[in-house]
Amino acid sequence: MKHDWVESAAQHTWFEDSKFGIVEIFELSYLFVHGHTRYKALAWETAIHHAATSMETVTDWVNYCRETCFAIVDESMKDDFQIGGPVKRRK
Q: Which residues constitute the domain of residue 54?
C-alpha cells in the first residue's frame, strides 16, 4: 500500500516549525532546565560547526522555554493550588 502524504516527525512537537536543529534545541532546553541562562554561554554551547548561535535565536528559545514553564504552572494553578502553609479560615 502506498501513501501519498508525508508527515514530519517534528509535527505537533516542541520542534515544529523550527529552523534550529533538533540537537541544538535539546542542548538549549537541557541547559535552560538546569539553570544555565547566560545568553553568551548558551550561544557558544549550541554552536553549529564552530559558529556561535545568534543571540536572537538564543533569546527566542530561552523566551519560549520560559513561556512554556509559565503556561504549565498556570495550568496547574487552575486546580486547587495553594502557596504557603495550612488554610486559615475566618469564622
A: 22-75
